[in-house]
Amino acid sequence: MRSALRLAAALAMLCLLTVSFLTDRASAGAAVSIHPAVTYASPGQIVRVYLWKDLADSLFDGYETVITFNPSDLQLQLGAAEESVMTKDCSNRWWYTSPGAGTVFVSHVRMCPPNTLVAGPGALSSLSFKVLREGRIVISKNYFWFTRAGYWIKDVTWQDGLVLSGSPAGISGETPAERETASIAVYPNPGRKVSIQVWPAEARTEGSEQLLEIHDIGGRLVRTLRAEGACAGSYSLTWDGTDTHGKACSPGIYYLSFGSAGSRTVRSIILVR
């Protein structure tokens, strides 16, 4: 009798541990973003953005999402397309998309053995849009979740995408001739890895180079980014949230500084984990 009770208790404990293991595995967080974080375009241009799994932070076999946008800003082209993360090493998949007014629904499931679960990072799917106007245009989501063997992966963090359309006049409301100082656009803000666009006050020359400095709230210089190139108009830079030595900076407020000693433009940014 005691042996039977011990066996029953052991089986119950094993069952609890199995459920706990599956729940823990299913509830591990995941990070997803629109990639690239900032896309530069002109009205009438077709742009392509990706639903991007940022890290190899969770194994999964499916996801579902509704991506949202303003139909006055963007016109969806041909729905969505599968990308490499979900198609690699697995030919048995469920793939379904449905466009709506200002939305696109995507459902993507890999019906494969457990040893073909995927983690990323990389592109889950892609969306193509026709840009309809100048200005700042946001691509966001209504919801997003992953699954693994039928379990939801909780705590999916999401980062919107931004389309900057047109000249600096369309983005900042002023013409280049009216600007006496540089203009700086940062996205995302708050963010951890940010895209930075700088429009200098003066015209750029072939092979020119300028420096964008990043200071902490105490005024200490933590990083210098070199803005260089021969393209007219603006500089594109990326800050990955690290200092000069490659060490991750602490979350908090930082300041981007660009320009000459007599005319510097400063833009604040909130760095998050």
Q: What features would you describe in this structure?
A:
This protein has 273 residues and is mainly beta. It has two domains: 27-165, Immunoglobulin-like; 168-271, Immunoglobulin-like. The protein is 13% helix and 51% strand. The chain is built from three helices and 19 strands. The strands form four sheets. Strands 2, 4, 6, 7, 9, 10 and 12 form a seven-stranded mixed sheet that branches. The longest helix is centred in the N-terminal third of the chain and has 26 residues, at 2-27. It is globular, with a radius of gyration of 23 Å. It starts with a helix and ends with a strand. Residues 4-27 and 168-179 have low confidence and may be disordered.
Structure at a glance:
The protein has helices spanning 2-27, 84-87, 168-172, and strands spanning 30-35, 38-41, 46-53, 62-68, 74-82, 93-100, 103-110, 122-131, 135-148, 151-153, 156-159, 161-165, 183-187, 194-199, 208-216, 221-229, 235-239, 252-260, 263-271. It has 273 residues and is mainly beta. 27% of the residues are buried.
Compressed to H and E, one letter per element, the order equals HEEEEEHEEEEEEEHEEEEEEE
Query: What distance separates the N and C termini?
Result: 55 Å
Count of all domains: 2
The number of E-state strands comes to 19
CATH architecture of the largest domain: Sandwich
Instruction: Assess the beta-strand content as a share of residues.
Output: over 45%
Please count the helical segments. 3
